[in-house]
Amino acid sequence: MSWQKVGVPILAMAIFLVLWELLVWANGWPNYKMASPSDLWPAFWKFKHLFVSMGWDTLWRTVVGLLLAVVVGVGLGMVMGFSRVMRDALYPLLVGFNAIPKATVVPIVALMFVGAHDFNTVLIAFMISFFPIAVSVSIGLSTLEPEYRDILRSLGASRVTIFWKIALPKTLPEFFGALKVAVTLAFIGTNLMEIVSPHGRGLGALFDSGKTNSDYPLMFAVLIALAFLGIVLYYVVVALEKVFAGWAERSPT
């Protein structure tokens, strides 16, 4: 890993924090109106045990929801990618479902599964993140060049062989691109449910507690913690992409 790939993002984050601090200072905003980066560390330290425990609750629910989205999204994508009939049948349903604001679905799910906080949180994380995965896999498979299939079939290759040798490698770049998007969407779904669900746990519930008590430093500290977890999970996906689809990366000219 080069210094540029590590140093440039860190420098960008540092510049962002400095500009944020200067913006608050220049406008003379008190911390009950707009918290500055210098207000966040005391909030982190004061509630450090809650950040650890509730951060873990948010992280594992998001990861489980994301894994379910991968399984279901890849399955649906394969069905739509290999069958034009199924693609024509399922695409309108998926597009219509994805067009529904998930913020309107969260209260419904919370009422349907009252008390099952882990289940409904994972469910929303899954519902909000599987769509880009399904679409990317479907597009990757449906745009497979027929010449490749014809050549392998003329050599006696089975459908399974064609899938493993041609279709799967071709789809991997699109899949990982969609997975990077799905990571952030899964965090959004998790925190929507944690905020709405009564007696919920997780960083979303901690944010809601800060809102109730007008504790702006705590609220902004939660947002930074969520951003940190999202960045970590994003780079986990980047690392997996380099392992399984690193051959597709092209250096900019």
Task: List key phrases describing it.
10 helices; single chain; mainly alpha; 253 residues; MetI-like fold
Describe it.
With 253 residues, this protein is mainly alpha-helical. The chain has a domain at 47-144 and 177-238: Orthogonal Bundle (MetI-like fold), CATH 1.10.3720. 83% of the residues lie in helices and 0% in strands. α5 (102-112) crosses α6, α5 packs across α8 and α8 runs antiparallel to α10. The longest helix is centred in the C-terminal third of the chain and has 38 residues, at 159-196. The two termini are 19 Å apart.
CATH topology of the domain at 47-144 and 177-238, what is it called?
A: MetI-like fold
User: What characteristic shape results from the CA principal axes?
Assistant: globular
Enumerate the spans where pLDDT stays under 50 for 5 or more consecutive residues: none
CATH architecture type of the domain at 47-144 and 177-238: Orthogonal Bundle
Span from first to last CA? Answer: 19 Å
The overall strand count is: 0
Give the number of helices: 10
One letter per element, helices H and strands E, the order comes to: HHHHHHHHHH
Give the biggest beta sheet.
none
Radius of gyration: 22 Å
Task: Give the secondary structure arrangement, pairings included.
Blueprint: H1 3-27, H2 37-46, H3 48-82, H4 84-99, H5 102-112, H6 117-142, H7 146-154, H8 159-196, H9 203-212, H10 216-245
Helix pairs in contact: 2-10, 3-4, 3-6, 3-8, 3-9, 4-6, 5-6, 5-8, 6-8, 8-9, 8-10, 9-10
